[in-house]
């Protein structure tokens, strides 16, 4: 078998066999296939695409390139949730304890933030002492005994994906549905989930900016799930403005706590209930999403979701008292109110620019080596559709280091578009794909 023939075959729009895909991915992972040939193949995929079976085989090949986490000692159906990334996306902090409180095992492996998107692990580390580096034994025991554990990934999961993504990043082949879908799903499958709920963002703050592309990505990932024997549901949700009001690690923990108390933003609450209801169905706790929603709402009103969050924090070495007293979270020394320069209605908030503004304050990483300021971030005061007076506060910046505050303020002001007429609002949930 020759790499040249595989590249040529895909360039001509023909279907690759499982053996050809396995040969390509194994050879590239081992360093036997050079970057120039792999980038040529990726470009051929970019233009010619792949069918459902090919994408399933590509996903499995990337899973097989590294470790598979065995979660079989955990009792029950393990459901993972994955978001394609956004700004103010605090759903995992709400969902994990809420779903666990309803009886579904939550064995969640999360990542760190990079660029304008936040990472769940960074947010949890805003809780003093919280340990995200659990041993496999502790991780499994926590889920079996308490229904919940959220930790960083262990093992070498899907190394082929890491290597291929780095190559795609510098060869203009990132925006390929087959390559994006197999990249995401390979990591989820290697993480040991039985079923997967996907939150596929669409809009200016999302990886996929256009609705049609987001739906296509969602459908492709659901098809991969079916192809490899994982029940998968995708929810296409709006990211044309930040989710909730808080952007930044400790600020988002605070907002998650308020949401579990029933006092959180309407959009964050609604998306959490929607995703959580499908997680309960896939885990077998409920028969349908409507029943799941009722149980989740009950877990908010009776305080069991909040209690589970405190229990998780304590079990993983964190200061659970934070849940009862948010003043124990890291606090920034300085704050600055950003005021509107004109009167009208908020037409649009460019979510990506809000995320970049928060990053400039220290809440995110420009590179993997960047240090995060857990207290830094932004609280929005106005969302799309809100009336604003000239000189009225639209957001507050929280920071410890002032070097880039002016730049962050300008970025945030530029993110807000104010007009004369009240705009029509985007739906929060566009579509649920099963």
What is the global morphology?
globular
Low-pLDDT runs: none
Kindly provide the radius of gyration, computed on alpha-carbon positions and rounded to a whole number of angstroms: 22 Å
Provide the helix percentage: 40-55%
Number of strand segments: 13
How far is the first residue's CA from the last residue's CA? Answer: 37 Å
**Structural class computed from helices and strand pairing:** alpha/beta
Strand order of the largest sheet: 1-4-5-13
**What is the beta-strand fraction?**
15-25%
Strand and helix order: HHHHEHEHHEHHEHEEHHHHEEHEEEHEE
Number of helices: 16
Kindly state the mean pLDDT as a whole number?
A: 93
Major sheet characteristics: 4 strands, mixed
How would you summarize what this structure contains?
The chain is 45% helix and 15% strand.
């Amino acid at each position: 078998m020759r790499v040249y023939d595989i590249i040529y075959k895909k360039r001509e729009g023909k279907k690759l066999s499982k053996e050809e895909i396995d040969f390509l991915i194994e050879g590239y992972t081992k360093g036997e296939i050079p970057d120039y040939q792999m980038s040529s193949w990726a470009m051929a995929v970019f233009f010619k695409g792949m069918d459902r079976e090919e994408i399933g085989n590509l996903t499995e090949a990337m899973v097989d390139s590294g470790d598979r986490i065995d979660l079989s000692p955990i009792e029950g159906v393990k459901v993972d949730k994955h978001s394609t990334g956004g700004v103010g996306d605090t759903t995992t902090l709400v969902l994990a304890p809420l779903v666990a409180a309803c009886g579904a095992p939550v064995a969640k492996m999360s990542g760190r933030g990079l660029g304008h998107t936040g990472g769940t692990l960074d947010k949890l580390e805003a809780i003093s002492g919280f340990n995200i580096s659990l041993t496999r034994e502790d991780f499994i025991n926590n889920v079996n005994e308490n229904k919940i554990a959220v930790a960083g990934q262990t093992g070498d999961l899907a190394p082929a994906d890491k290597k291929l993504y780095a190559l795609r990043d510098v060869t203009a082949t990132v925006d390929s549905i087959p390559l994006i879908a197999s990249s995401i799903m390979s990591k989820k499958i290697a993480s040991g989930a039985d079923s997967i709920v996907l939150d596929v963002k669409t809009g200016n703050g999302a990886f996929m900016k256009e609705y049609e592309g987001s739906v296509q990505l969602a459908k492709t990932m659901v098809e991969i799930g079916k192809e490899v024997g994982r029940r998968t549901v995708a929810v296409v949700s709006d990211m044309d403005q930040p989710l909730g009001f808080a952007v930044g690690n400790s600020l988002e923990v605070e907002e998650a706590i308020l949401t579990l108390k029933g006092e959180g933003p309407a959009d964050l609450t609604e998306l959490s209930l929607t995703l959580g209801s499908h997680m309960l169905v896939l885990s077998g706790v409920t028969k349908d999403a409507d029943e799941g929603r009722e149980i989740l709402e009950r877990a908010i009103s009776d305080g069991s979701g909040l209690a589970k969050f405190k229990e998780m924090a304590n079990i993983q070495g964190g200061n659970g008292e934070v849940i009862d007293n948010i003043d124990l979270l890291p606090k920034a020394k300085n704050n600055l109110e950003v005021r509107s320069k004109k009167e009208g209605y908020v037409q649009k908030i460019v979510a990506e620019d809000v995320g970049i503004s928060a990053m400039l304050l220290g809440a995110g990483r420009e590179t993997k080596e960047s240090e995060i300021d857990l207290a830094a971030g932004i609280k929005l005061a106005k969302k799309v559709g809100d009336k604003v007076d000239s000189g009225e506060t639209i957001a507050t910046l929280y920071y410890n280091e002032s070097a880039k505050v002016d730049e962050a303020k300008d970025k945030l002001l530029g993110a807000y578009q104010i007009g004369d007429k009240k705009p029509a609002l985007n739906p929060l949930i566009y579509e649920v794909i099963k």
